[in-house]
Amino acid sequence: NPVSGDSLRRRFLNFYASHGHKVLPSSSLVPDDPTVLLTIAGMLQFKPIFLGKVPREAPRAATAQRCIRTNDVENVGRTARHQTFFEMLGNFSFGDYFKKDAIKWAWEISTEEFGLPIDRLWVSIYEDDDEAFEIWHNEMGVPVERIKRMGAEDNFWTSGVTGPCGPCSELYYDFYPERGHSDADLGDDSRFVEFYNLVFMQYNKMDDGSLEPLKQKNIDTGLGLERLARILQKVPNNYETDLIYPIIEKASELANVSYVHADDQTKMKLKIIGDHLRAVVYLLSDGVLPSNIGRGYVVRRLIRRAVRTGRLLGIKGDGKGNLEGAFLPAIAEKVIKLSTHIDSDVKARSTRILGELQREELRFVQTLERGEKLLEEMIANAVSNANKTGNVPCISGKDAFLLYDTYGFPVEITKEIAEERNVGVDMNGFDIEMEGQRRQSQAAHNVVRLGVEDGRNLVEDVSDTEFLGYDTLSARAVIES
Ligand code: ATP
Ligand code: MG
Ligand code: MG
Ligand code: MG
């Protein structure tokens, strides 16, 4: 099947190999970079080359990089296009070719290799990048009305608070070309999907925010494999591609529901499991163990969210009759089966991965039920208090902290459950409690900062001991208990 996920990955790498790129393996999800939490893009393994700190191995490279983006955790199942775990196909130039060839090859692979109809492709460019406009318009023949100039938030790419960056140009696929171009908005994801980002990497962003030109001009690109598969397999979202759907089917089987006939809420839960199981299997494989700090907390949180989601779907025990058993390993086996062409090491590590999952699930389930009961009481109290005072119902920071500290509830789960009942959580109060515990802790720690760039959180910096900062969505300041 020429449009299977595995074929598309291979076709991408072959295309760029035939244009002189050296095909390199994906790097680990744990970057070789103490300032970065997880691998969020293909360029991370090349950061030292872009910065001129180490010599290039080859002038051009191509990879299929496994990535994790915790900033997209809330989008999982909500949008058609986001997972926390995905593969980014990338072609890179280290001081070799620049804008013109990057655009030419991106256009060629999209329209010729993958056969995307020209009249369905739109491009965005950075607002003042006239050079990119010229190339797209004059040389590729893209009509003016399908080239959109956009601001820094969408079209100036930075891998973090500091580091290599530059203006970018992106390719979008139009699912409804018949809607015309007069009021088309590339941000409308019911019509468009962004699939290929070309970064013209020519600056280093300094601590003070200033841009220092890099010694050489580079190309860094990212094409989302699941998004490409979704387009070419003609399915409504990334989750229904052959890269993820078998995992969802396994979860449906355990929950005794049919994905096809399920309502949207059920579908979303199945997608959450489909995504989170992929993420945790690859994270565990890359050596990240569940814990209360940094990367370990990301894994723990994803595992716990998957467990809770499975229970909401009605999966009991191992889903096969053993009420004392764990169900994550059965689904993880599917993930491992699908892993061959993503990361051939996963299979060899499967015993350890399945063991870790089982242990973490059973540990969580022990406290989950007691915690859920307590949380129900807290929600009821919050509602009755609110009825008396006329305030918005809200769980106190102290209560959220008790659930976190004593019952192992990631505060995001508390928030999620409370929000399902229209009850808030006093996150400020929770942070104060956390801070109090932190102060008492004897643990040595380093202060770290999380990358917040134009309202986006692409990179979370992390120390090897402790988080003190957190972004809007994910890793919270926590202490090793
Ligand atoms: P979006 O605007 O859709 O969130 P992005 O601009 O954050 O995407 P980039 O940082 O440009 O994404 O990453 C390059 C490519 O990687 C994207 O064009 C897309 O194909 C893919 N990609 C990014 N985030 C995800 C995700 N969470 N799940 C699946 N694919 C993704
Ligand atoms: Mg994004
Ligand atoms: Mg974008
Ligand atoms: Mg983008």
From TrEMBL:
- Annotated ranges, domain Alanyl-transfer RNA synthetases family profile: 3-481
The cellular location(s) given in this protein's UniProt record come to: Plastid, Chloroplast; Mitochondrion
Partners and quaternary state? Monomer.
Family listed: Belongs to the class-II aminoacyl-tRNA synthetase family. Alax-L subfamily.
* Notes on the domains: Consists of three domains; the N-terminal catalytic domain, the editing domain and the C-terminal C-Ala domain. The editing domain removes incorrectly charged amino acids, while the C-Ala domain, along with tRNA(Ala), serves as a bridge to cooperatively bring together the editing and aminoacylation centers thus stimulating deacylation of misacylated tRNAs.
| Function as written in the Swiss-Prot or TrEMBL entry | Catalyzes the attachment of alanine to tRNA(Ala) in a two-step reaction: alanine is first activated by ATP to form Ala-AMP and then transferred to the acceptor end of tRNA(Ala). Also edits incorrectly charged tRNA(Ala) via its editing domain.
**What protein name does the entry list?**
Probable alanine--tRNA ligase, chloroplastic
Give the originating organism: Erythroxylum novogranatense
State the organism's lineage.
Eukaryota, Viridiplantae, Streptophyta, Embryophyta, Tracheophyta
State which stretch of the full-length protein is shown: 86 to 566 of 987
